[in-house]
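Possible race condition, two jobs.
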Amino acid sequence: MTAGERTTLGAAVVARPRSRPAQWQPYLFMLPALVILGAVLIYPLAYSFYLSFHDWTMQTFRQGVPFIGLEHYVTAFSNDRFWNAMRVTLTFMALALTFEFTLGMALALLLDRLTVGKMVLRALLLLPLMCTNIIIGLMWRMLFNFDFGMMNYLLSTIGVRPVAWLSEVQTALFSLVAVDVWNTTCFVALILLAGLQTQSAEIHESAQIDGASALQRFRYVTLPLLRPSLMVALLWRTIDTFRIFDVVFSLTAGGPAQTTETISLYIYRNGFQQFDLGYTAALSMIMIVILFTFALLLYRLIGRLATLH
């Protein structure tokens, strides 16, 4: 067989299409994961969507689950308590994200410039992330205790009267924000630190040689290069703060006077205390749509920033 014939035969072997079982083989390997995903995610989501158009309550479900159309959605959007929960959630999200990204940026810049003890500080920053949120809530509930809490003890040492951190309308929401900032600022700082360490030192040195001040280098060099990391952290924290539940439940349970009742807590009360599952499903669908909208907008923004970068 000549060299040309061997080349032709090899090309024919390579070009030969795979058999049908070989084409389905990747899907067979994926099938167990798809079945599990469908069982734990897709089916409950589809059933919740179906249930949101039906009247299912603990008192009446034995008589049937009648179709009522968009009644639950109309009830939600005309309910003052729903709008109060949305206002509390968005206020909490705005305050928490503002403080977390401000402090997270400062910590990231500090760690990026340190030369001694950097690994130890990184390990210490991870400590709040190692605790579950319900434990964090119980711990801070003891710290905020009016009579025996450490916070009021520290205030008493400087002559300040005790503060009812979790039971006063003026302080309850800000106390929740403080707990969330303590818990997740380190997460934001680590993401931003990773972004800072991917930046080329030559760019900053060139800007410094050109006469740019430290503030100008931060504004026109560091921040533009850090935008993808900022947007990734913002996407994660936006979703996380919007659906916050466990810390609020363990600290204030929505009080006082519903000033800390987030949308997740409002949904929980309708579903697991009043057992109005049809209305709860409609509220969950509204929450999913809002979160999907947030995620989509931020994802598209991340894609544009990455393209510019």
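Job #2 (started ~2 s after job #1):
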Amino acid sequence: MHLPPFFEIGSFEFAKHTVLIFLSVILIVGFFMWAIRKQALVPSKGQYLGEVGYGFVRNSLGRDIIGEKEFRPWLPLLFSFFFFILVNNLFGSIPVLQLPTLSHPGSAYVLAIIAYVAWVGVGVKRHGLGHFMAKMTMPPDVPKVLYVFLIPIEFISNLIIRPVTHALRVFATMFAGHMAIMVAASLLGFLITDVGGIGGILGGAGALFLGIFIYFLEILIQVLQAYIFTLLFAVYVDGALQEGH
């Protein structure tokens, strides 16, 4: 599933997923630079695709979630999150490449850390450390006596578990989907080559159908996870910016 590294520099491993991460950056930058090269009033197909992609992030993940007054400074990060995760996820469905780089936990947690620092940082900057911590740990309209129990629960939930699950969600789905396709492919090979006969052929046909179904299901999940990760980040930013109780 994950090939040995090409070479190592100390604890840093330069492996296939590292190459794919660099490739994703080149592809994303290259495509959008190509799409906006002319900026014609009547857009070409490439410019139209670029504008649709940008408009989707701008409107659905920026303006609609964070709000008209606040979303513009966050567009570059929202845009980068969505397309970086999307392309790296889709690598898992491209023959030969066949590796979603976010099936490595380290890649997913780096993105979650960037998101965490961004929304916590803007929350502290906007409200001050004390007020921000109160927003995160003291729900409004709750009897004060319950804060003895709620403050530690809310602190763990919002400031510890939230970034962990933010990364774990995309990592786990990419890892599980990739494993499922590998199992279906291995089952197909086993039934045809080792079992053989009519039973092996029929079983292999079933395994092939299962593999195709999982393949297209994984493509859907790859797109959804890019959307969900970016959507959650926008929700966290909006929560950090809003006035508390």
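The mean pLDDT is 88.
Logs attached separately.
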